[in-house]
């Protein structure tokens, strides 16, 4: 007698493989279809440009590289004031630039957080927080079988092989030879590790126009699978690592601020979840520090000492006005014409001044510096003047700093379930 | 006026073949020339009391076949011709059918019931023949109705319920039907024939009784009557009543609480004392209760689904239920091991015990172990077999933590039992070892019962026992299958099983060659176990062994080509063996292509394999065709662009596969292989595309092709478009209307039917994948071609998104195609995307998803849309 239709004997023959083979074949095909469609989606075509959506710059066709590069030499003197033509190149093209052009181009590619001088609303809902690793910000580009990291001023930090896509001269089975990637990192000296704090392009896929939420998500899912997080080896000189990123609720803030990290901390970074990657200064990314989470709470001078008076670096304009690096620039004072002539300053020079505390005023929430005492021309390595928010933050730091308690107080108590809500947690 | 056809109908049953053929031809002509008259004549014949029973019976059968067919397209055609027939003829036919219910000839009555149900299945859902139910009920309530009429009427009511669905009847009609049926079960008033017909009718009417089960009084009445008939003196009535109870157990689980004590008494008496078919139904009742409770538990484990209430019947009955099932295990049949899927008291009891274990988990263990311990050493093989079977049955359900110590201490005993002098005991012991490996052995679990220390002994026993009787050897194959499976995916760089693989493979290959059994099951078990061994092996350690196996299997496959084929039986055997060998090759190809280091092995033998596959195709048997096709798809993927050189030879078989409507699995696999080839060859597939695309279009338009093949065809268009890019342009005028038609069809599918829902999801996904491939393929040069279709596509996406039955894969495909639209068409979609804002909510929802792939796709799509909106 056969069992009823719905009932299979527990002692039936265990093995029935044909259907399984069919299903596995189907699974393989589905996976491969999805892979090839995804590959098609990520191919750099006309749609991906390097510039941010808010910028008016557009990618230029290849044939213009050489003429543009030549142009940039001719107009070298004006590079700092005008939009550098080289800026309009994409990363692949820019990687062919050399020397000064390259430095100038790369110096403008990083997204620069403003300093937190007041607390943005809805911090807990719209922002991420993470501990900033101590070290130099740099822009890391892998392409053509090599990897180059460049500091904020555009100069090369390392030139090395890595496991990033097309980052060394090994066969990279997972992508075309022309593929490249661009990361925003902090190089942490003590463990010789690049901590990736943002992902700008990955395998030709530009993330400039994507929200921070997506970029972090992509970073988290893609970086490890490339092998870049592995220990150093012949074809991978420096380790890359992600940093733990938290939703900026009470728990997240606490984790970023007080939990110990595998790296030395230098302040805390806040990123607005919805913001795109925008080159230059942006209020949608904020940096904040205090003495507890940073050794560099107050600016130091070249000897590493905190000067008694706050110092600022400003850029001298054609008309002698002294401005910040903001866009539009904030004017903090101006130099006398004869002083300029005597000192042989040129427009665009970065000059260091000391501030007299008693002359500083805050009018309608705006900082006014009053008397500026000239100290010296700034270190040549510097590419930019201080930003307004930095000057303000340093001023506040010396007088009435924004405290971690203030930030915590602006965040509503945790949600009822009381779990540390970590929407996107990088690393493990 | 009806035609006289008695003689033709009798001739059609003649022993003389020639007479029969002529008669059949006559009937066919008659049917073709004048269907209404034909049908009328048949019904007249059926209802004429003075005609011979043989001609009446055949008339009824032909009538039934003129209303219904297995094939869906043919059935629809027959339905339409009935619907469009002259109403006066139809009503005469129906009158005759009802009249026949009172016939004195039981065959005529029975056939008429079947035909009535077929007519009802066409007319009642169309709200026609509403008087049918009233007329049937009249037969039941007329005081002078003879018993045969009542019996036939109940039978007809049952068949009608079987043919239609609950929503086709008004509640009043349902009430009347149930009243008539339940009254028909009454012992006092009716003959046993009438009561049996009533119980069988109730079985079919149960699905209609939702409202009546919700009403306590009515429910009590129905349950009381069913329980009474379950104790009737006639065994057929008891069995039919228990079938009703089994059905009630699953359909009305939630209402059973008050009756459980009665039901337990009733079923346990049946299990212990009644005839086997009835005892089996009584066991089935408890298995069905287990099914329900397992399902409720599974549902409540999934989040957010409001699960149905759990009554814990099994837990409550456990102390009495488990001993009841254990008793059945001792009622084995002498030769039960010689037949696969044998069903008797012991099998049903063990199966139920296994379900109980899955329902209650750990608590079953102390109830079963004393039985195991006291019987496993007894002299009677029945005791030892039952003890082992009991132990094997409860290995799924209780926690590993609870079971592992028992298995640890019992393992050596079981290994020794593989030398028991009873073949039954060895069979069940090998099966139990397989269950242990299946549920208690995993390379990554802390409680795994297999250790480096006991593995050598286990392997030694298995390799010795695989040479035992064929039924034992087959169970040993099963044990090895799960043994290998447990070592899959262990993190360590090395698998404990690796050192033994060589010996195991050798043993399996010789088992496949055993000549001491005519049963093909052992051979297929051996090869399929080999497949699992390859799948689960640690490739770093075994690549050379797998390569060696590849050569051996190729060698065996080439030998099948030399077999002497005299009879169709020979052909079938050759084909079965080729299927198994192609299966192994498929698994090996897929395994070796997983890593760069080993994929070169495939390239090395690709030419030889391809020649073999082509030769196998040349043998032309569909099963082989299917397995060889599967293997070939894996080969195409593994070899990549160099597959191009085989295309010319292979193309005709691919075309044959795509044309194989009858065996839709073959067709479906061939469609999948087109996708593999597209990905392997990219635009090198171009020369074959005209042929492939036109065949696929033909398939889509064909009503005969099984519908499950259609969604993969749409996905396949996407594969082709992605592979050949701008060259897909010439197919657009044909493919787009197909996609649009299918999209419209999706909205017409009934959402009440689970199968249709699933089909709808597959279809939607296929359509989206087609659009995705086309959009991405056109992105760089021909995107403008898709601008005119964007609006309609977007509306379709919106419609799908608003469907609450869409599954996650459909959602992902919808989100992806939305991004593709924005990506490929860019600013052209700006206005559309501003007009259709559903994407905002959709993407928001998907970005919150736990499914990383869905989230990733949604974020990508959001990026694409934002880019368009700011442009």
Automatic annotation (TrEMBL), chain A:
What is the residue range of the signal peptide feature? none
Say yes or no: keyword Cell membrane present: no
Pfam families given for it? SPN1_m3Gcap_bd
- Report whether Lyase shows up as a keyword of the record: no
> Where's it found, cell-wise?
Cytoplasm; Nucleus
Q: Where is the Snurportin-1 m3G cap-binding domain?
A: 109-285
* GO biological process assignments: snRNA import into nucleus
As for what it does, the entry says: Functions as an U snRNP-specific nuclear import adapter. Involved in the trimethylguanosine (m3G)-cap-dependent nuclear import of U snRNPs. Binds specifically to the terminal m3G-cap U snRNAs.
Xref: PANTHER family:
SNURPORTIN-1, SNURPORTIN1 RNUT1 PROTEIN RNA, U TRANSPORTER 1
For this entry, the protein name equals Snurportin-1
Species whose genome carries this gene: Zingiber officinale (Ginger)
Automatic annotation (TrEMBL), chain B:
Keywords in alphabetical order, please: Cytoplasm, Nucleus, Protein transport, Repeat, Transport
**Molecular function terms, GO-annotated:** small GTPase binding
What SMART domains does this protein's entry cite? ARM, IBN_N
Q: Which GO terms describe its biological process?
A: protein import into nucleus
Q: Domain Importin N-terminal, which positions?
A: 23-103
Cellular localisation: Cytoplasm; Nucleus
Q: Could you tell me which InterPro entries the record lists for this protein?
A: Armadillo (IPR000225), IMB1_TNPO1-like_TPR (IPR058584), Importin-beta_N (IPR001494), Importin_beta (IPR040122), TPR_IPO4/5 (IPR057672)
One Gene Ontology term, aspect cellular component: cytoplasm
Q: What is a single Pfam family found in this protein's UniProt entry? A: HEAT_EZ
Q: Family, per the entry?
A: Belongs to the importin beta family. Importin beta-1 subfamily.
Q: Protein name, please?
A: Importin N-terminal domain-containing protein
> What phylogenetic lineage does the species belong to?
Eukaryota, Viridiplantae, Streptophyta, Embryophyta, Tracheophyta
């Amino acid at each position: 007698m056969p069992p009823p239709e719905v009932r299979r004997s527990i002692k039936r023959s265990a093995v029935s493989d044909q259907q399984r083979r069919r299903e596995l074949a189907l699974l393989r095909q589905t996976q491969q279809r999805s892979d090839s469609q995804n590959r098609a989606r990520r191919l750099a075509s006309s749609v991906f440009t390097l510039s941010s959506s808010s910028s008016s710059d557009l990618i230029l066709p290849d044939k213009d590289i050489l003429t543009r590069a030549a142009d940039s030499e001719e107009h070298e003197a004006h590079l700092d004031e005008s939009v550098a033509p080289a800026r309009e190149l994409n990363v692949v093209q820019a990687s062919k630039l050399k020397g000064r052009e390259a430095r100038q181009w790369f110096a403008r590619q990083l997204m620069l957080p403003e300093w937190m001088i007041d607390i943005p609303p809805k911090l807990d809902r719209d922002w991420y927080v993470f501990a900033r690793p101590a070290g130099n910000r740099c822009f890391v580009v892998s392409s053509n079988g090599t990897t180059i990291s460049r500091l904020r001023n555009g100069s090369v930090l390392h030139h090395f092989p890595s496991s990033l896509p097309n980052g060394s001269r090994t066969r990279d089975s997972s992508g075309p030879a022309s593929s490249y990637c661009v990361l925003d990192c902090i190089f942490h000296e003590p463990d010789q590790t690049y901590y990736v704090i943002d992902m700008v392009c990955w395998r030709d896929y530009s993330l400039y126009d994507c929200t921070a939420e997506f970029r972090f998500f992509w970073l988290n899912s893609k970086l490890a699978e490339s092998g870049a997080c592995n220990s150093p080896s012949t074809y991978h000189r420096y380790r890359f690592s992600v940093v733990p990123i938290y939703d900026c609720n009470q728990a997240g803030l606490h984790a970023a601020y007080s939990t110990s990290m595998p790296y030395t901390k230098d302040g805390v970074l806040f990123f607005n979840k919805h913001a795109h990657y925008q080159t230059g200064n942006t209020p949608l990314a904020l940096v904040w520090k205090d003495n507890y989470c940073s050794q560099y709470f107050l600016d130091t001078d070249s000897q590493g000492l905190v000067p008694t008076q706050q110092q600022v670096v400003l850029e001298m304009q054609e008309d002698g006005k002294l401005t910040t690096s903001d866009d539009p620039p904030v004017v903090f004072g101006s130099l006398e014409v004869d002083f300029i002539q005597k000192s042989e300053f040129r427009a665009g020079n970065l000059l260091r001044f000391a501030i007299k505390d008693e002359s500083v005023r805050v009018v309608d929430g705006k900082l006014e510096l009053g008397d500026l005492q000239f100290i010296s021309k700034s270190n040549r390595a510097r590419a930019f003047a201080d930003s307004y928010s930095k000057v303000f933050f340093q001023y506040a730091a010396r007088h009435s700093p924004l405290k971690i308690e203030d930030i915590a107080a602006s965040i509503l108590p945790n949600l009822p379930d009381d779990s540390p809500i970590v929407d996107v947690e990088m690393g493990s | 006026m009806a035609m006289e056809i008695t003689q033709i109908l009798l001739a059609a049953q003649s022993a003389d073949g020639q007479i029969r053929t002529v008669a059949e031809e006559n009937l066919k002509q008659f049917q073709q020339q004048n269907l209404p008259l034909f049908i009328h004549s048949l019904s007249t014949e059926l209802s004429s009391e003075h005609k011979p029973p043989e001609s009446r019976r055949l008339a009824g059968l032909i009538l039934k076949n003129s209303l219904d067919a297995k094939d869906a397209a043919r059935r629809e055609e027959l339905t339409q011709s009935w619907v469009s027939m002259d109403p006066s003829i139809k009503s005469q036919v129906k009158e005759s059918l009802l009249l026949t219910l009172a016939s004195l000839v039981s065959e005529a009555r029975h056939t008429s019931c079947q035909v009535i149900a077929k007519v009802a299945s066409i007319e009642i859902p169309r709200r026609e023949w509403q008087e049918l139910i009233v007329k049937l009920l009249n037969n039941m309530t007329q005081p002078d109705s003879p018993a045969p009429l009542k019996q036939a009427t109940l039978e007809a009511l049952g068949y009608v319920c079987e043919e239609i669905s609950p929503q086709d009847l008004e509640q009043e009609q349902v009430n009347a039907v149930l009243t008539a049926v339940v009254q028909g079960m009454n012992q006092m008033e009716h003959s046993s024939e009438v009561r049996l017909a009533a119980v069988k009718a109730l079985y079919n009417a149960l699905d209609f009784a939702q409202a009546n089960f919700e009403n306590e009084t009515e429910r009590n009445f129905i349950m009381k009557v069913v329980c009474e008939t379950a104790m009737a003196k006639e065994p057929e009535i008891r069995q039919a009543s228990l079938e009703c109870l089994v059905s009630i157990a699953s359909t009305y689980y939630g209402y059973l609480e008050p009756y459980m004590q009665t039901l337990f008494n009733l079923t346990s008496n049946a299990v212990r004392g009644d005839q086997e078919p009835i005892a089996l139904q009584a066991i089935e009742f408890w298995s069905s209760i287990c099914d329900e409770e397992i399902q409720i538990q599974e549902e409540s484990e999934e989040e957010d689904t409001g699960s149905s209430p759990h009554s814990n019947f099994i837990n409550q009955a456990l102390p009495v239920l488990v001993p009841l099932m254990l008793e059945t295990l001792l009622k084995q049949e002498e030769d039960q091991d010689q037949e696969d899927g044998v069903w008797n008291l012991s099998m049903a009891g063990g199966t139920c015990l296994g379900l109980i274990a899955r329902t209650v988990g750990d608590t079953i263990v102390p109830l079963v172990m004393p039985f195991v311990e006291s019987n496993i050493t007894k002299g009677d093989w029945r005791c030892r077999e039952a003890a082992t079977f009991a132990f094997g049955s409860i290995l799924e359900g209780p926690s590993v933590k609870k079971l592992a110590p028992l298995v640890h201490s019992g393992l050596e005993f079981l290994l020794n039992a593989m030398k028991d002098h009873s073949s039954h005991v060895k069979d069940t012991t090998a099966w139990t070892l397989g269950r242990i490996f299946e549920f208690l052995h995993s390379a990554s679990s802390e409680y795994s019962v297999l250790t480096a220390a006991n593995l050598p002994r286990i392997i030694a026993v298995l390799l010795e026992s695989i040479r035992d009787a064929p039924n034992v050897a087959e169970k040993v194959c099963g044990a090895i299958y799960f043994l290998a499976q447990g070592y899959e995916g262990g993190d360590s760089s090395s698998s404990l099983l690796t050192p033994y693989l060589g010996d195991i493979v050798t043993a399996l290959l010789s088992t496949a060659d055993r000549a001491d059994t005519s049963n093909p099951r052992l051979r297929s078990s051996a090869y399929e176990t080999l497949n699992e061994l390859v799948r689960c092996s640690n490739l770093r350690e075994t690549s050379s062994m797998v390569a060696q196996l590849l050569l051996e299997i190729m060698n065996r496959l080439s030998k099948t080509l030399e077999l002497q084929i005299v009879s169709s039986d020979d052909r079938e055997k050759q084909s079965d063996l080729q299927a198994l060998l192609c299966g192994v090759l498929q698994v090996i190809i897929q395994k070796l292509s997983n890593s760069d280091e080993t994929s070169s092995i495939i390239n090395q033998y690709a030419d030889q394999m391809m020649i073999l596959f082509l030769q196998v195709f040349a043998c032309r048997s569909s099963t082989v065709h299917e397995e060889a096709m599967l293997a070939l798809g894996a080969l195409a993927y593994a070899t990549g662009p160099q597959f191009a050189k085989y295309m010319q030879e292979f193309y005709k078989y691919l075309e044959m596969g795509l044309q194989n409507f009858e065996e839709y699995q073959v067709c479906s696999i061939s469609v999948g292989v087109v996708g593999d080839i597209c990905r392997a060859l990219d635009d090198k597939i171009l020369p074959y595309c005209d042929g492939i695309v036109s065949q696929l279009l033909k398939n889509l338009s064909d009503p005969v092709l099984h519908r499950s093949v259609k969604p993969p065809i749409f996905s396949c268009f996407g594969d082709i478009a992605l592979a050949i890019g701008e060259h897909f342009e010439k197919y657009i005028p044909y493919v787009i209307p197909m996609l649009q038609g299918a999209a419209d069809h999706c909205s017409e599918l009934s959402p009440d039917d689970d199968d249709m829902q699933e089909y709808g999801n597959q279809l939607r996904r296929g359509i989206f994948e087609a659009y995705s491939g086309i959009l991405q393929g056109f992105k760089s040069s021909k995107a403008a071609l898709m601008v005119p279709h964007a609006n309609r596509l977007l509306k379709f996406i919106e419609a799908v998104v608003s469907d609450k039955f869409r599954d996650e894969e459909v959602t992902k495909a919808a989100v992806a195609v939305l991004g593709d639209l924005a990506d490929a068409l860019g600013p052209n979609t700006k206005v559309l995307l501003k007009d259709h804002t559903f994407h905002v909510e959709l993407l928001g929802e998907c970005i919150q998803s736990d499914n990383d792939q869905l989230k990733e796709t949604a974020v990508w799509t959001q990026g694409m849309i934002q880019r368009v909106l700011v442009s």
